[in-house]
Design a protein that fits this description.
The structure is a homotetramer. Chain A is of the alpha+beta class and about 290 residues long. The first copy, chain A, contains five helices and twelve strands. Chain A has two domains: about 130 residues, Urate Oxidase (Roll), CATH 3.10.270.10; about 160 residues, Roll (Urate Oxidase). An eight-stranded antiparallel beta sheet of chain A has the order 1-2-3-6-7-8-9-12. In chain A, a hairpin with a 6-residue loop joins strand 1 and strand 2. Chain A is globular and about 75 Å long. The interface between A and C is small, with 9 and 8 residues.
Amino acid sequence: MSDVILTSNQYGKAENRVVRVVRDTQRHELVDLNVTSQLRGDFLAAHTEGDNAHVVPTDTQKNTVFAFAKDGIASPEAFLQRLADHFTSEFAWVSGGRWAAEQYGWARIHDHDHSFYRSSPETRTAVLVRDGDHTAVISGFHGLTVLKTTESGFVGYPKDRYTTLQETEDRILATDITTRWRYNTMEVDFNAVYDSVKDTLLTTFASGYSKGLQQTLFQMGQAAITAHDSIDEIKFSCPNKHHFRYDLSFCGLENPGEVFYAADRPYGLIEATVQRKDSPADESAWAGIAGFC
Amino acid sequence: MSDVILTSNQYGKAENRVVRVVRDTQRHELVDLNVTSQLRGDFLAAHTEGDNAHVVPTDTQKNTVFAFAKDGIASPEAFLQRLADHFTSEFAWVSGGRWAAEQYGWARIHDHDHSFYRSSPETRTAVLVRDGDHTAVISGFHGLTVLKTTESGFVGYPKDRYTTLQETEDRILATDITTRWRYNTMEVDFNAVYDSVKDTLLTTFASGYSKGLQQTLFQMGQAAITAHDSIDEIKFSCPNKHHFRYDLSFCGLENPGEVFYAADRPYGLIEATVQRKDSPADESAWAGIAGFC
Amino acid sequence: MSDVILTSNQYGKAENRVVRVVRDTQRHELVDLNVTSQLRGDFLAAHTEGDNAHVVPTDTQKNTVFAFAKDGIASPEAFLQRLADHFTSEFAWVSGGRWAAEQYGWARIHDHDHSFYRSSPETRTAVLVRDGDHTAVISGFHGLTVLKTTESGFVGYPKDRYTTLQETEDRILATDITTRWRYNTMEVDFNAVYDSVKDTLLTTFASGYSKGLQQTLFQMGQAAITAHDSIDEIKFSCPNKHHFRYDLSFCGLENPGEVFYAADRPYGLIEATVQRKDSPADESAWAGIAGFC
Amino acid sequence: MSDVILTSNQYGKAENRVVRVVRDTQRHELVDLNVTSQLRGDFLAAHTEGDNAHVVPTDTQKNTVFAFAKDGIASPEAFLQRLADHFTSEFAWVSGGRWAAEQYGWARIHDHDHSFYRSSPETRTAVLVRDGDHTAVISGFHGLTVLKTTESGFVGYPKDRYTTLQETEDRILATDITTRWRYNTMEVDFNAVYDSVKDTLLTTFASGYSKGLQQTLFQMGQAAITAHDSIDEIKFSCPNKHHFRYDLSFCGLENPGEVFYAADRPYGLIEATVQRKDSPADESAWAGIAGFC
């Protein structure tokens, strides 16, 4: 027992699927979240001795999530902040934690008052990490697939004995945008900035000629940070979803960029971080997030 | 060997992911399909003796799919028809087959000429089954999640010793619409009818008070067939995606239909077929389609 | 309303995840099922009028599944039979239905009395379809991936202008076995026959030279029916999971069947039914099962 | 442009599905990997200017993976090391990278020489992170589901107004083991240690009474580190897969721990790190791995 120690740890209830209906008027609203709550603090005895005196049950965390939803959900980020405030103030030994949410977007069916369909291609994400007095908020999304049918190429790369790729100045560029950005303040209209960042990324992706996905991601990150003072850092983890021009010469057909085979695996995987110059980094906030370097 | 016989069989290449770009003008178009081709006919010797003289390779079927895409894809249904015509006319022993496609919907990013994002929540489906002179075309979609926050109830059901459910006249009704409809003609604007059926189903779902998902599905089917002379039959396989009112009495809160827990499993599963009166049935066309009775 | 009619329909509760522990002695047993119950019969008024007087709630079906589990689960098939007997005898208007189960296999950790790990690669399936006095039982499994590194080829097939495939007499043959077989009696030791069929299929797959997946599937089906008098029919829906020999000539290496790229899509899809000669068919029993022709 | 900077970044080819057959004798061997290669170094110009002079194509990385497989794959870890050595020595501006692999386990069908089935419930993982002279190797697995039917409880936890959970001294404990451990040396028989760690974790899980999943994970980590001098740190990210005792009182039945409902979401999520005392930490090695704190 003396040879090993417990270091980082957290626990809680994951994927609480809470749907909040606002029905104060005939025109209902709908907020659809998947909330995870995990606590950090002094939980040593639970691990080493099975002493649960500090272990706020994951079931209690679940009940709290649903009870707090009764008071309304202004934004995923605000909701997570309330959970963080509650658990760190209610229990002396809870010094921090990690709270996360996914949000699914719904739209009205023909502007109906209480009938909706799930409309958003992307899943919105939010993470709040608290450690004592420090709080980091990281927002983002995944699942937004974009594609441009031209104005993309890849040339000028190094060749060695394992290189067979041909240069091209006209290819399909396609990716699923997975991105997360870190705020430098809590004084944000999180919903408005979310919409704005998404729009900025889409607009940047569509614009201009892409010399490579690295360049495109950097441009997207640059645009997002430049447009939003509240954001210090943005990360991308984006597949290069290959669309291979199908060789139709076997039957005498040319294929000038018209017929493509959309491949599954393997795929390119491009990951990059763009940061506001001279802003502080916050590496620990990103721990446990898959696929970002 | 004499004790067993080969009965129904089919084979081919599944999930050919073909993307067709139309680039005749600066304003590009994009068609994104997942095509499966399977042949039926005289393939007995391949099974019993390993004699492949009749086995048009699945690889050849793949090449054919991509080669035909070069000529354009007006609709999934028309594309499948061309494949069926080709294989049944090219090879004497191919008497029929099953061709299927999924289509993924894309929209322009801010009306851009060649930049798109994958926008449709639902996946469009098409199946063409040919047996000699008979051809059946079944279109549909899956993955369209709809929800109404009120105007739904469930009362008047029988009770026995295993019944604990409480009656309610105000609940959330939510489902993923999975539907397929069978045409009675090939003289159809398949894209236009697709859009119209989808719209009809959404409108019907949104309208009125639902006494049960069975009633809602029947109304949806009735509306689709009534509005479209070209459709004889429509099937639904729809989960009742339970949204349970979370009991908040443990902390003294009431919950008048505001906070819900969205459950995963188990779920209700309601399946129904609505058919045009006096129209012919075509049971064999539906074989191999999951989750429809 | 008079223009359309309700035809086939069924409804119930899907995916009841029931785990039954047998703890009569210190050496516990574990049965892990995913049970779906769907009723058929006179449910017209529910669809056309929203009259639920016949609608045994899906929630009641769920409660019944868990209550019946208390009495023990000898086999998935026997459990489904008990459900069918109950619902068709308890409610006069329930004339039949469809009951299905998946079973997940567990093994003891080092022969421990009450600690287990989920060991089976395959998922066992069972379906019971009842229509009045007629009952069909279909058992099977999916998810068993098999591969032979040699003794497989594909030659002698027809060529046309779309053919580019090269003949080979040494390739990898790999598939995920998805199979279902239909019993001709309920007087079966379902667990013993399940184990025996699985073993028969594996043994047949491993044996001899394969001239094509069609031949292999037929041999597997023939072996299963020949070995088991209680089985009249067996179906396969099996992908040809392509393992392409990676061309290493770019760096001067030969590749005599040593380095393969395992592709995802597209894949061959071979489906076949083998039936005991002169036995009756039962097409309606197979309705709604995906991927079998 | 001057306002933002590029910080961490990496790119490469993900999920190269390479299958290596060893066929030097009649008794073939099979290694089945999913390999990801990502490079780090001086790639600034690619991001800021679209200058690809340093961008070793992801396609070249793919070719390299398959070419190296020709020489054999002793273990995933050794294979990743060879890739790291190659890329960092071949290209001056490549100062490091991240290489990862999943391995799928196969067993012989009845001890057959060249026929196999995919047998392992768990997926083996390996990650090698190199930064200049420093190399970290992290091995692990996921997907191993374990369950004990008794000898588990949860008592003594704090209660507040949101607590409704009842204490219990007899429950099912079930989890999917996802674990990763970090080596302190490359002088390891990676395959042997992998088997040993897996066995140690299973044995520890099975043994004794569990006062909580936290305690069980700590015991598992302690056992692994104590038994293996080559391991300095082990992390767990494990769901508490709830199995709720189904209340059968509605029909007059007792349920003394025999009938359970296996729930999907929400679930407990317990994450912990156990480290060899006085050993160095290596936080950067863990970046980008999901679900570990």
